[in-house]
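Write out a sequence, fold above all:
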Amino acid sequence: MRVLSVNVGTPREIPRGDGTVLTGIVKEPVSGRVAVGPTNLAGDAQADLRVHGGPDKAVYAYPIEHYAHWGIALGRDDLSPGRFGENLTTEGLDEESVHIGDRLRVGTALLEVSQPRVPCFKLALRMEDPAFAKPFLASGRTGFYLRVVEPGEVAAGDAIAREGRGEGAMSVREVVGLLPDGAIAGALDRAAALPALAIGWREGFANRAIALRRRAR
């Protein structure tokens, strides 16, 4: 497991309809070692801090293995690292093998998997496909966010070592699978009990489980 590319970017205007929108989704590969702080990589920033960034979304990782899938699905050959807005383009990790709460040593930083990525309209703009968010989420190829346990530095080529498994043993793919209607209360309870899952996700799953049980009475 390793880092193939480290990608950063600051907010910029991109086209939207007849106007533009400010977004930090445009990330470009950088060379050399990059500092990883509590809420960001050096040189990286988000435009709307209400829904992006922060301790639970300090670093976004996306597997290089998914690039081939999307190249075929979208009929494109121009997808390169950073295209999905990720800070780390990784090799050897995927949503099935990575659990919520896994601790990963990446370069000298220690990171913890905190939640899957749910795309907003800005990813669709970046991919130049207004309908992209729905198939992205449905595919389970969402990548995952990480919080910073120990600050450090990362660079392309760094090894990624798993230093601990997340309590509760739920994969990123399993958690994404609970988002559509049809999830059972027991599975929602299990996700809500994951100590490393971002609090908003835990509360959302817990409330859905309560609602399901009320309807079943």
